[in-house]
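Lab meeting prep.
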Amino acid sequence: MDEEQRVVRRSLIERWFPERHVYLRSNGDTRGYVLTSGRQMMMAGVACAAAAWTLVASGGFVFDIIARSQADTQVVRARAASERLNADLQARLKTAVVRMSATTGGLDEMARMVERRHAALTNVMGMFHGVDGAEAALAPSPALSATEARPVQRIVAVRMDQERLIERAGDFAQTRAERLRLAFRLAGLNPAAYGAASGSALGGPLVEASDPKALATILDVDEPFAVRIRRAADNLSEMRNLSDAAEHLPFDRPTQARTTSGFGVRFDPFNGRPAVHQGQDFAAPLNTPIYATAPGIVSFAGVRSGYGNTVEIDHGRGFKTRFAHLNAMAVQPGQRIALGQRIGAMGTTGRSTGVHLHYEVWMDGRPQNPARFFRAGDQIVQ
């Protein structure tokens, strides 16, 4: 039975890959080459592997383009909705002002509302302290001159500016959160796993005020204004969570040197056979400084088989980075490392054909494509 199976298998191979003879003629000389069934099968296998890798790489590129496009579309839609809402609120505000201006009592009530809103708005704006660009984006409009505007006009101007500020605060936080979500998706990560709010960004007694009515009571403001404060706080909370997570992930580059071999299948430089390359290579002169791509703790610093002088850093959350073929190491196991700290110098130790850095990113015990993390870092700093 085994002999029959071998005969059938051999006949199928000969049917699909019959022996072929190739003749090449050059300058009157004719040379013949025999393509055996085995060689044809090997060539077909290499072609299929190359085609599969091309499809995978193209798919990743298309995914990145689609992710960027979807994120940009969401941001544009959010801004358009915000502008429509702001225009509607301003129209309603002007109508309310006309009605309330008819009596002194109406003006007094509006002044008290403006004061209460100002206190709540101050609380919200304090949450943006330290956020890059927030101070300029959320600056209030200049107050009207007392000599050029009546009291009611100044009150109206302040209230309308309050409407603009709270809307702008929500949009600012939402836009930043969208940019960070896109960066996480570019790195192949689920932003929802890193941006889940652990509590309200408002803090204090407002943590429990998830209901707009309760929040309006605590802040002593009208409910629509409380809803917008909640929206700004939620967006800011997600933005801060994503930003804090991003600061501890390897989104930076270990060196600004030119990149060479990338992540994926390539031909091994020593034996010429297809092999999986689990990192990204950088080429530069000997002893080019190498820097940590995220804060963490050095989990290994020594010699690894094939890698030569190697430094490994544990960044927490299941992330680890590896720096191989170093000529010198500037850190010790157990040492706490900051982002951008020099950890060694480029070399050619271990299984290496020349001076370069072999850099790897690992997540939960699996190698990741470092190029995706570089693209995420570029998105964050835009």
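Slide two material, second protein:
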Amino acid sequence: MRETRDHKWRNTILAGLANYIDAGSIVAGSVALALWKEIYGLSDNFIGLIGAFSANAISAGVGALIGGVLCDKFGRKKIYQYDMLFYAFGMLFLVFASAPWMIVLGFVLVGLAVGADIPASWSLIAEQAPDDKRGAHSGVAQLLWYLGPVAVLVAAYFLQPWGITGIRWLFAHLAVLAIALTFLRSRMRESQRWEEAQAASAGQALSRNWRELFSPRYLGAMLFLAAMYGFWNLWAGYNGFFTPFLIAQNNLPAWTATMLPASYFLIGMFSILGIFMTLSDKVNQRLLFGISAALHVVGMALLAIFGFKLEIVILHVIIMGVAGGFGAQSFFQLWSAELFPTAIRSTAQGATFAIVRIGLGIWSLAVPTLAAHDFTTLAWILTGFLVASGVIGLIWAPRNEGKSLEEIAAMPSSRRTPGSRAASERPVA
């Protein structure tokens, strides 16, 4: 039995490593923004364009939409085994970028690859995890997502003397890891739950899956996830891609541009490990989410009230780091796997992820200009987004801790719909 559990943890780590290179590419790009702006004379509008089409936003959303459909049709393994080669190809444009168009193209290709990998890897993690450890296994993927920025930002600090050449090394290590991950994943098995679902629905048309996804039974879950995670992600996209750039623009000490964001992600890792992975399978998930949402609002409101000052930014980083570990993104990964059956799970995850990331891309077009001219207004808008995410999560969050995916799928719609009275009152298994 122990060998089986060890094998599942190994698969979770290999699937979750895509999160490392996803987040790593986002923050590597954020560190490079100030240098690219100086070298190529980029405008705030062009920087917003990079943010909008980067792995952080629109291209990742499109990739997730396409990848989710393909995962449900052809299997998780076919997608997550080969999409990393496409990622490495796109990353080469960033490694050797010598013109602004290469930066945009590189981020578009990288975003398509990481977006396609999200529904494949997240579905696989949920489908092979033990029923009483699904939150813990999902947490591993989030742990790796936070590790990517920590590794990249700390490395960027020590590579500062080499300027843009040092940044190229950051992109190069992500490309090499993507190629290595392709070979490591080749030994992984296909999801057993997906194989059983395929056998049970042999000959089912893909269009039928789409009709089922947008039926009343599942449409409410999609709207809940897209709204809860989407509003939070408007803040997270600003935080992950623009924070180092804004620190540099506000003339804070040079070390803060890399070490403060790295500290946020490092604190988040301890929060994931100590809170989300430890408690999410055992306690009231709505309560955990609510505590995190309240901390997020307080942390962002500090910047809105007191401004972009060093001591305030440090306090902001601490609060947001703790809150982020057991907040919207961790629960989005978990709930987006639980609220849909295996046959349409990846399609649903890809569709909701696409809505969120494309929305972030549109928002990213405005962030640099707004931050440069009126950061206080930007901070209050972001605080409002976090309030909206928290309220939506508190009202409609599901309670599925301890239940198998089959038990959740078999529940009547009135019990499994987020926020329903029956769902909130059933006992924890």
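Talking points for slide two:
The longest helix spans residues 2-40.
Confidence is low (pLDDT under 50) at residues 419-429.
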